[in-house]
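Re: weekly structure request thread

Next one in the queue (526 aa):
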Amino acid sequence: MTTKLLTIREASTWASQYLKKNVTTSNIAYLIQYGKIKKYGESGNTVINKHDLITYYKSFNSRRELNWKEQLGTDLNWALSFEHLKEKETTKHVHRLHPYKGKFIPQLAEYFLDDHTDTFKRESYFKKGDIVLDPFCGSGTTMVQANELGIHALGVDISTFNTLIANVKVGTVDFEALNYHLTAITQALKDFIARHNNTDFENALLAELNQFNKKYFPAPEYKIKARRGEIKEHIYAATKEKEFTKTFDQLRKKYNLQIHSNKTTNFLEKWYLQPVKKEIDFTCEQVKRIKSPAVKKIIAIILSRTVRSCRATTHADLATLKNPVIHPYYCRKHGKICKPLFSILAWWQRYCDDTIKRLYEFNALRTDTFQTCLQGDARNIDLKTKLGKKIAPFAQLIERQKIKGIFSSPPYIGLIDYHEQHAYAYDLFGFPRNDSLEIGPLAKGQGRAARQSYIESIAKVLVHAKKYLLKDYDVFLVANDKYNLYPTIAEKSAMKIVHCYKRPVLNRTEKDKSAYAEIIFHLKEA
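Done, posted below.
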């Protein structure tokens, strides 16, 4: 193939004709800057290969980018999609220490906190040694990235459990003590399981399941027939599920195993089978005996993560619980009969190993800076007093140099009940709940009254935060502002919106994969 090299201006003209829409030189420069096409030439004589452009414009990502810009507007900043990153990069080290709905990827925080500049970010706003505030700290993403960059960070969150997650991520670790206690608890759990007949029951159940699935749901033949309509999946699967339930009931009686409690007074009683609940209670008691607060908190997070993965639900309903599953069921995801969990051991061991690995990875990147999250209401928390009691030198640093700015993602109105998503942890550890103090919870909806309350609450947080900020502060708030609330919020906070970075959100956990964007609002003093 003959290589044809084009200058940026020539490429702009050619691409406009090729796509039948205006493609500016800035659009071409963006493709070069973010590595979507290769550049050639030196000393200002940049040229690109026409074939590279054609290949890019024919690619899936290019088509998606163009389609989304048509739906969401040409001001969509595709560079902030971070589409080139793999999942292991967006969930690196401690960022995947515990599941958490509604968090942004670390690269987004890093983009605004580090000192680089580019076509879109024309100046840097934070430098090493600065202090950043996150008044909606959540799981601590801003604090972790600030630490990597040598920036001090202070978080605030109304949720006790969120505060625990965030502080475990940035806390220092005694790996020797951590390994000792994890080994001891794992062995104690194995001994506890050995004293019961759960293992014998589950081994017998797995043997029966394997034989049953091979006979009635052979892979891949069954899925092919179901897809072709040769088998009426819904009717066939329901019949076979009912048939295997008889085998399950026989095994349960044989091993004298109580599967489910009739009590539904709390989350743990409702969503965990009795064998699992007993193991959870036993392990929790082992954790409570640990004397080191730091080690105890880390292991509490491991246990919480384990508990979350062991709920009595189907593989398809892990994110949105529907009804407890107390017997084997037909799983459309796997095209066979699957079973709920009857033990936490496998998940516990998996998360013990994974947590240690992630803590080691972050420890190698850690800088000598202050990071902590305070539990409290960001609308009125006394940061000076509360931080002074916890980390006096950090409070003194804030007193001397003030906080440079904010990087945070406030709750999206009417989308998540932040306490309820971790209801199992509140039941398990007996943490106090502050549901009534959440801003914009799902329970209050998105109606007019909810929107007005949201505006007033976010504005109060910003006004209160200004007491601790430098005069020339920079505030960055990540939001999907479909009701256009943030101009009013800025006005009520005596701030002005100086820039809006509109980014596509590509890796959503919801089933709805339609075009979706959020805005990073940059605010300064009005």
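DSSP finds 21 helices and twelve strands in the chain. The longest helix spans residues 233-254.
Next request, please.
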